[in-house]
Amino acid sequence: MRIVIARGYEDMSMRAAMIVAGQVCLKPDSVLGLATGSTPLLMYNKLVEMHHKAGLDFSNVISFNLDEYLGLAKEDQNSYHWYMYHNFFNHINIASGNIHIPNGMTQDIDQECRRYDREIRQCGGIDLQILGIGTNGHIGFNEPDIKFEATTHKVKLDQETVSANARFFADISEVPRFAISMGIKTIMHAKKILLLANGESKADAIYRAMYQGITPETPASILQLHQDVTVIVEESASKYI
Ligand code: GLP
């Protein structure tokens, strides 16, 4: 694991954007695994800026998002579908056919999960996976559990996750209780992983993920076994490391 302590959110975001941009420049048809949440927002802004000002070309990039809430339509402003288009895809030249996000409105969850895994396999797996981290150590929506879930699956969200994400909704009762998430095996098969953490609320999760034992109770701890992980930790999130 390469650990970089960033001097603030801006620095974390710029460093992350440079890594993504480098990946796309070196391999224009890269398969990117993308994350949502507040952490990567400024990284997306910077990539949009690099597209407009420096011609960073996403026309051959393929993307797979980590997760989606079950029961939220694409048009719902709290869906990760909406987040990705609003914050990133609408502002770059990625081809719409190259964008993949789990369908949160599917009538057949198992089939949707199998379809998602099949499409990732058909694209040759993920070249660079971006990850945030939950305060409980989750990655994607892989919640603390007694085992690691390998493939794309339905998740019951932890109370801690529901509370943490309630800030985006009008009321906590509106936060979906279920989601579809890429599994740990798929994430671990990514050639490179970039984990971002911002804010003091992530300090404990980062410490447990990086320095404590590998356990499904802290899903991000599995990353200790990956051969090419860069962790960019904004300084207040690095308090315990
Ligand atoms: C959400 C997402 C994760 C994200 C995490 C942290 O629940 N499913 O992919 O990394 O929470 O979010 P934030 O960056 O807003 O703290």
From TrEMBL:
Annotated signal peptide: none
Residues covered by the Glucosamine/galactosamine-6-phosphate isomerase domain: 32-229
InterPro entries: Glc/Gal-6P_isomerase, Glucosamine6P_isomerase, Glucosamine6P_isomerase_CS, NagB/RpiA_transferase-like
GO MF term list: glucosamine-6-phosphate deaminase activity; identical protein binding
Domain of life where this protein originates: Bacteria
Catalytic residue list: 67, 136, 138, 143
GO cellular component term of the entry, any: cytoplasm
Gene Ontology BP terms: carbohydrate metabolic process; glucosamine catabolic process; N-acetylglucosamine catabolic process; N-acetylneuraminate catabolic process
Family matches, as PANTHER family: GLUCOSAMINE-6-PHOSPHATE ISOMERASE
Biological role stated in the UniProt entry: Catalyzes the reversible isomerization-deamination of glucosamine 6-phosphate (GlcN6P) to form fructose 6-phosphate (Fru6P) and ammonium ion.
HAMAP family found in the cross-reference section: GlcN6P_deamin (MF_01241)
Name assigned to this protein: Glucosamine-6-phosphate deaminase
Organism: Sporomusa malonica
